[in-house]
Automatic annotation (TrEMBL):
Native source species: Streptomyces salyersiae
UniProt keyword Isomerase, yes or no: yes
Domain of life of the source: Bacteria
Protein name (database record): PhzF family phenazine biosynthesis protein
Gene3D superfamilies, sorted: Diaminopimelate Epimerase, Chain A, domain 1
InterPro entries: Phenazine_PhzF-like
Pfam family, one: PhzC-PhzF
Family: Belongs to the PhzF family.
Keywords, alphabetical: Isomerase
Coiled coil, from the record: none
NCBIfam families: PhzF_family
Length: 273
């Protein structure tokens, strides 16, 4: 069985967020323990597993995502990576609909090589910062929002882009601050640089200290910054060491996330699933 590593939300290798992708030959998933072991072996922030569904249903493919330690409900970059593999291998063209834990997710391929993900918009609820958040994060929040059940993060607004880039969190302490992770964000220092806001994502609770580019986080970042800027179409930079750009388009209860992807490794999974 082919296994691929795809860098998502980037147009060049060794940037963006790498995801493992396995397209299964069967019409069902193996047991979750087997999928988890493969994801742990791949040891990337997420590995995606997909299998085709019978014609005529609401979705074409079933899709699941695993970190090295757990299954997650929603993952943007591994969905983008899977859609990229389907397109570049000729398995699917145009629009693909994935059946997932977060409902049916639609991806659309464009002629310039980019792909758009149609994801549920995360609901934002202002909350009081949990005790110890500022100390664990290493910066004082301007505001804190809960992002609902699908995402499960705290969205933390900081003073400026420099504050986001300078973060050096205490990851063990950060585990106690949210259900999944913490998204730190601020407005871009200079929009002329090609992005409107900056973010970083920390998810030690699910085995990922810092995620390079988090698509699902942008379903919360999009409504947050669209309300601030008064625009539905924005570009976010996730300022990790690898970095990546996510174009966001707020469409009410849905958020469109657009980016590119590059396959960097293709190999063979020798262990049976």
């Amino acid at each position: 069985m082919k296994i691929r590593i795809v860098d998502a939300f980037t147009d060049r290798p060794f940037a963006g967020n790498p995801a493992g992708v396995l397209l299964l030959d069967s019409d069902r998933f193996p047991g979750p323990d087997r999928l988890q072991r493969v994801a742990a072996e791949v040891n990337l922030s997420e590995t995606a597993f997909a299998h085709p569904l019978p014609p005529g249903g609401q979705a074409n493919w079933a899709l699941r995502w695993f970190t090295p330690t757990t299954e997650v409900d929603l993952c943007g970059h591994a969905t983008l990576a899977t859609a990229h593999v389907l397109r570049t291998t000729g398995v699917a063209e145009g629009t693909v609909r994935f059946e997932s834990r977060s409902g049916v997710l639609r991806t659309t391929a464009h002629q310039d090589g980019s792909l758009t993900l149609d994801f549920p918009t995360a609901p934002l609820t202002p909350v009081t910062a949990p005790p110890g958040l500022a100390t664990a994060l290493g910066a004082e929040p301007l505001s804190v929002h809960d992002t609902g059940d699908n995402v499960g993060d705290l969205l933390v607004e900081l003073a400026d882009e420099a504050a986001v880039r300078a973060l050096r969190p205490d990851f063990p302490a950060l585990v106690a601050c949210s259900r999944r992770g913490v998204i730190a964000t601020a407005a871009a220092a200079d929009p002329a640089d090609g992005y409107d806001f900056v973010s970083r994502g920390f998810f030690p609770r699910v085995g990922i200290d810092e995620d390079p580019v988090t698509g699902s986080a942008h379903t919360a970042l999009a409504p947050f910054w669209s309300a601030r800027f008064g625009r539905t179409d924005l570009t976010g930079l996730q300022a990790s060491a690898r970095s990546g750009l996510v174009r966001t388009s707020l469409r009410g209860e849905r958020t469109w996330l657009t980016g590119k992807a590059v396959t960097v490794i293709e190999g063979e999974l020798l262990a049976a699933l």
